[in-house]
Amino acid sequence: MHNDIRELEPRSVWNSFADLNAVPRPSKKEERVIQFMLDFGKSLGLEAIKDEVGNVIIKKPASAGMKDRKTVVLQSHLDMVHQKNADTSFDFETEGIQMRIEGDWVKAKGTTLGADNGLGVASIMALLKSSDISHPPLEALFTIDEETGMTGAMGLKGGLLKGEILLNLDTEEDDEVDIGCAGGVDVTATRSYSEKPVPRGVLAYELKLRGLKGGHSGIEIHKGLGNANKIMNRLLYLSTKEYNIRIAEIDGGGLRNAIPRESTVKIVVDKAHKDNFEKDLEQWTAAIKDELKIMEPDLQLSYKTITKPKKVMGLGAQEKLLNAVYVAHNGVYGMNAAIPDLVETSNNVARVILKDGKIRIGCLTRSSVDSAKADLSNALRATFEMAGFEVVLSGDYPGWQPNPNSRILEVLKNKYKELFDEEPEVVACHAGLECGILGQNYPEMDMISFGPTIKGAHSPDERVSISSVQKFWKFLLEVLKETPRA
């Protein structure tokens, strides 16, 4: 752990962040961080409970002079996306995040940082342990599994919270106040295929695609970033058409909410085609690099000969796979007609894995409009079913509909203007926030979302602005002073 992190201001926030980042906290495996938060709350003499799905709630009475204010729920999620560079040796399940300072930014060493949503969690921790901050009655809600299914928010029962206002601290631009977000659904396509003996007279190759930026599949889906699964599929498609290659393995992408950065495949090609195949592979890659040179300047494809695999997939199944991935929509599907520059509907072809007679393709489809979400997920279903896949739609969660008449929105707008002498951007985002889900069991709760500036979330390039954390903390404290009376 970089000790300089603990010297940053505000120290209470950065120290809490450093403590949190020392605890492994992958989605679906949050047992250690849940216990960490329960112990934290109890060490302060506060009521701390775990609900039946694993969410942690810590309650703190109002500070002096604030007992007549409405109770505020402060909400962030405990889990973090685990991504690392291919050349980084790191075990997310046993090691704490290694942080470093670079100018105005805090980064991790070759991995995701966990600022999403660790800075929100750390800010709430700093408020809970404070003795000199003016605040209304607080209910700190730390949800689990936000990044891989939002099952924590989905499992939170009505009646556990008494607050009338919810501040979600999980957005990533410090000049924005979010009042709405997209919903999502996982589209998973699977099929088996017949494995065939490796043809005679072939060379085996391992192809590795690296150097893509990756990123958040909601917030950054409109940027034209390269998708490793789509790029590799393009190269395999061309190689099949020209040289009749045979595929043995594919391992591309990772988490459903991260734009894929890497893909590795194992193939065989006739020895007679060796020189021409390598020449064309380099030319095709050069053309793709030229297409993406602005957004993906570090894209690299390497290849080497390897020991021949034992089996390859049949040509019929291979053709159907490559056609399906080629056709499957990736990126922006539609823009919102009412809000300028807001993505309404998108898809991320997140994961392609093929080995031992089994194929699995995972996508995350997002939309702020339920009918558009259904339209795109059905289009994907049809694409994969025509290629012989079985398709399952799962993990469907709702969007959060904007409420422009929100009372707490007015508080934030006025306070932002007073503090920073400019108007905040009131927006809806294409990411999946938990507010829409929480609102199902707490429909009368007035919700808003804001946070510090975080770049590159869901990728090893994730970083948070130090000055932005200072700005966000100042804003949060002033908002709490101005919350409405009960």
From TrEMBL:
Entry's EC annotation: 3.4.13.18
Q: Does the record carry Hydrolase as a key word?
A: yes
An example Gene Ontology molecular-function term: metallodipeptidase activity
Q: Name the InterPro entries on file.
A: Peptidase_M20, Peptidase_M20_dimer, Peptidase_M20C
Gene Ontology biological process terms from the UniProt entry: proteolysis
User: Which UniProt key words apply to this protein?
Assistant: Cobalt, Hydrolase, Metal-binding, Metalloprotease, Protease, Zinc
Top EC class, one word: hydrolase
Q: Name one GO cellular component term.
A: cytosol
Domain Peptidase M20 dimerisation: start-end pairs: 209-293
Catalysed reactions, semicolon-separated: Hydrolysis of dipeptides, preferentially hydrophobic dipeptides including prolyl amino acids
Q: What is this protein called?
A: Cytosol non-specific dipeptidase
What organism does the record attribute this protein to?
Kriegella aquimaris
